[in-house]
Design goal:
Shape: elongated
């Protein structure tokens, strides 16, 4: 689902329509979990995105969990691998990746934790699904009461979705060093194809996210190894992020270092 704030009411439908420029609006986590941020560069795909992995295991599985994904973001507001609670600010709305205007792309999906990877699996239906609720209410849309953005996109017209209230102070932006590319009207990309050749690749969401990409820049390299070395021996509960605990065992040790070394050079664009 793509979300924007609305502008006004329509004559033919009883609810609001039209979208605002939501650039830099705060995005909060809709549930508790661990937040991993990644980027696909400014040219295509999901742009800057966050996957929040919950502790809710999918029935009949041993290592598959429910998660949410927030895409086309402008800035990240939490460290990669940081624990978050429901309502905590995690990012700001943008138009990074394949996006013609600022909005929040939101998904509910299953992720499988295996070794040093998160495999992004089955997507759950968000729209008109009684089991999926935002702020306690299902997202019900009357498809007979709709406004077109273009031939394939609908503006949501229905009872207002209140969203999840922020439970924490809003931190300052974690600002990247690059200017927007590819004509997007809102976006400060954390990496660009000019700085890192090969990053601008026309892919959609990758099927695998490498947990060994400790700094969340898209590739496993020496910088990730250094981050693990700097906190080697630490109890994860004492760190602001669990990113260096690649295997989720609660401590940063030689196993995590070995996993980073084995994944060297792998990228998840």
């Amino acid at each position: 689902m793509d979300f924007n704030k609305v502008v006004d009411r329509t004559q033919s439908c009883p609810y609001a329509s039209g979208v605002l420029n939501d650039c830099d609006e705060v995005v909060v986590a809709s549930h508790a979990g661990t937040a991993y941020h990644r980027t696909q560069s400014g040219c295509s795909g999901y742009g800057n995105y966050v996957v929040v992995v919950s502790n809710v295991r999918v029935p009949a599985t041993s290592s598959t969990y429910l998660a949410t994904l927030y895409a086309h973001l402008n800035y990240f507001l939490k460290d990669n691998g940081a624990p978050v609670s429901v309502g905590q600010p995690i990012a700001r709305v943008g138009a990074t990746g394949t996006a013609t205007c600022s909005h929040l792309h939101y998904e509910i999906l299953e992720v499988t934790v295996s070794g040093s990877t998160l495999t992004l699996g089955t997507r759950r239906q968000v729209l008109n699904n009684d089991t999926i609720r935002l702020s306690g209410q299902p997202l019900q849309v009357d498809l007979n009461c709709r406004v077109y953005l273009n031939e394939r996109d609908y503006i949501y017209v229905g009872p207002p979705i209140l969203g999840t209230a922020s439970v924490d102070s809003i931190p300052g932006n974690i600002v990247g060093t690059c200017s927007p590319t590819c004509g997007n009207q809102c976006g400060n990309f954390l990496w660009s194809s000019e700085e890192v050749p090969g990053r601008c690749i026309p892919h959609e969401l990758p099927s695998v996210i490498y947990l060994t990409d400790v700094n969340g820049d898209g590739c496993v390299d020496d910088a990730d190894l250094l981050e693990v070395l700097q906190v080697r021996g630490a109890d994860v509960s004492e760190l602001p992020s669990r990113a260096a605990d690649v295997n989720w065992d609660g401590v940063v040790d030689e196993t995590d270092l070995l996993m980073v070394l084995m994944d060297m050079g792998n990228c998840s664009y």
